[in-house]
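Step 1: inspect the first sequence and its tokens.
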Amino acid sequence: MSTPTDFLLWVRGPGFDIALVIFVIGVIIRLLEVLVLGRKADLAEARGTEMGPGIRTVFTRTLPESGSMKRSPFTVAGGYIWHIGLLICLFLFVPHIELINSTIGIKWPGLPSNLVDAVAAVTLVTLLAMLFSRMNHPVKRFLSGPEDYFTWLVTFLPMLTGYLAFHRMINPYPLVLGLHILSVEVLLVVFPFTKLMHAFTFVFARWYNGAMAGRRGVQS
């Protein structure tokens, strides 16, 4: 990899393949860990059903609680903004859709590039504001560990390098594009082994909480 072009070809080829394999195998292993844990038999008589309340809780917990909005409006609103922004940039940017299509053969309509660009800018600012809030709020700072800052970093870098690549702010272009792809690959590699895995496990957790509440005859 003596030139930026060589670097770009490597991260687009072998580097991406390695990261994708680690990501897929890691996610499968982590999900299997959750499923094989099982749960102890509940010997108490059931007072309701599990499936319906479990599914309902998956969706109702996605909405912010009124109490949380009153206590920490910035934290709640900021969390929604950057999560939604990240999903839009990842799944509705046409070049990303084409990459997914070339990888697994599935595609869908995307959004105009200028709209995704605006969303990316808002997401970047929001992520920086969330970091500033975490570092300056005494409770958040106390509860935050090295992994929290690391996961923030590996989430922020793909957004930043993608924004720089889109606007061609670094020359030569193959270098900044390669850095963007590499940052995504780092995210893929660490994803299954950090708190980022909650993107998959939150469904199981919310369903379980709702199902147990439904079994007891109460609302989650």
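Step 2: inspect the second sequence and its tokens, then contrast the two.
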Amino acid sequence: MRPRKPPTALDEDALYTYAVRLLGTQMRTVAELKRLLRRRAALGEAGQAALDAVIARLKEHRYLDDTGYALDYAKLRQENSSFGRRRVQQDLMRKGVQADVITKTLDTAYEGVGEEALARRHLARKRIAQPETDKDAARVARLLLRAGFSTSTIVRILKKWNVDEAALTAFESAGADEPSDS
């Protein structure tokens, strides 16, 4: 197998065209796009200046907007995947969205949304039935934790399903380190 040759460095106009093509395939954050463009930009200060100019031009033409991206992402994850606030927050942080933008976005996206109803919708979407054993209850609890729901919400759902009180106590004490989103 032949080694790959490194991609040729692009000038500002070619870098802009490449960025528009990348944004045409999927929405991206500023951090994601910078990471992808950095590979193709020239090395040194000239490359960094071209990269900054391309990012500024994309923002000016409204092709790049982290706030809009975060709001769309949060709404889609909430409506289609029924994910909780914490999961969406972690995903946005991983994508490089700034913390203050994430906070404002999640406040807007999850305003008036009941976490317990969202968790029940997530369980229905995954076709999860009422657990019959403590092992099944633990599996459901882990599923809901991965989906971004708070420990208190998970306990409320499991209590309504009449899960053994000892299993609930064990779960609550294990999840006591996590912040509650009640």
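Step 3: confirm your contrast with the notes below.
The chain has a mean pLDDT of 89. The chain has three domains: 12-60, 66-109, 115-174.
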